[in-house]
Amino acid sequence: MKWSEICIHTTHEAVEPVSNILHEAGSSGVVIEDSEDLKREWPEGTGEIYELNPDDYPEEGVNVKAYLQVNSFLGETVETIKASINNLLLYDIDVGPNEITLTEVREEDWATAWKKYYKPVKITDRITITPTWETYEAESQDDLIIELDPGMAFGTGTHPTTVLCIQALEKYLQPRDKMLDVGTGSGVLSIAAAKLGSDDILAVDLDDVAVKSAKQNIKGNKADDVVTVKQNNLVDHIKGPYDFIVGNLLADIVIRMSEGVASIIKPGGIMVTSGIIQNKKDQVIQALRHQQFTVIETMEQEDWVALVVKYQG
User: Fold this and answer.
1) Positive/negative CA dihedral, 211, 216, 221, 222
2) DSSP assignments along 75-103, one per residue
């Protein structure tokens, strides 16, 4: 079987929507080569994550790579991908250079090459994310280890937006908080919450592949007794109240669901939302304030912002 690697040179802001477009086009995996990773100061103790080859990365921005089966309609698939990415401009998403290249690869290369980039990463003082095929020993009894298999391409848990969410969870989530995870993807935030003491978690995602991936990861981390995963569009038809809500989404989506979130969170409840690019931060804050949320902390990493807000309604 032959595969074609499609590479899209884009911006940090467009990584998530471009990845989603590739999933919808039939890709079962993505590789994200972020130029900022070469500049990032990694914490000690994360092993081979430091050994990055600059030749694998763009000079600026991000390369998002996916693998498509070579068949009679590959050309049409690529054209559909191009059109969908161009449509992101309608949502005021900066797609940057938007350079698209195709390269033929052997199946054995495709199946294993991406794994060399994924090593254990210490996200916080207590939480480490490691791939399921790596052996990682806890440094102390307080360490919490999350094992992920990102084979379905919903993230390794090391993207800045996810890191910010996990750091906020560790700081603000209280044991036994009832939590809602909106747009769960790989399920990593729900797993983190379970390990931090939440015993009643609902994780939702519109994508049925994400739901399957989350269920697999949650079961693998022995959190399926406290986490329920289901397919759902954001907070539609969800009944609260919740003590804590987390959503690693896009700014426009956070704005769109702000009213719905206010209807299902307890007074004094906390919401953490990430996936917000710097130039959209004020718009999101304004929308949340309109729904009686108060910002209690703004967290930033690279070009990304996470907001921790409290509901005053």
Assistant:
1) positive
2) HHHHHHHHHHHHHGGGGT---TT-EEEEE
| Nearest Cα residue to 220 out of 115, 129, 110, 126 | 129
Domain extent, residue 75, equals 2-117
Angle, CA 155 vertex, CA 85 and CA 116 arms, to 5°: 105
141 and 112 part of one domain = no
- The CATH number for 14's domain is 3.30.70.260
Q: How many CA atoms lie within 13 A of 50 on its CB side?
A: 8
Count of alpha carbons within 13 Å of 266, Cβ hemisphere only? 11
Structure tokens, 203: 């994780």
Closest CA to 84 of 146, 17, 30, 140: 17
Indicate whether 113 and 131 sit together in one domain: no
The Cα 8–Cα 304 span in angstroms is: 20
Angle at 292 between CA 287 and CA 294, to 5 degrees: 85
Residue 25: Cβ within 10 Å count: 15
pLDDT (tens digit, 0 to 9) for every residue of the chain, 313 residues total?
678 889 999 999 999 899 989 988 888 768 888 877 656 665 554 444 445 566 667 788 999 998 888 887 888 889 889 999 999 999 899 999 999 999 887 766 655 666 666 778 888 989 999 988 888 888 888 899 999 886 544 566 777 889 999 999 999 999 999 999 999 988 999 999 999 999 999 999 988 878 988 999 999 999 999 999 999 999 999 998 999 999 999 898 999 999 999 999 999 999 999 989 888 999 999 999 999 999 999 999 877 899 999 999 8
**Residue 101 contacts residue 91 (beta carbons within 8 Å):** no
Q: How far apart are the C-alpha atoms of 154 and 221, rounded to whole Å?
A: 16
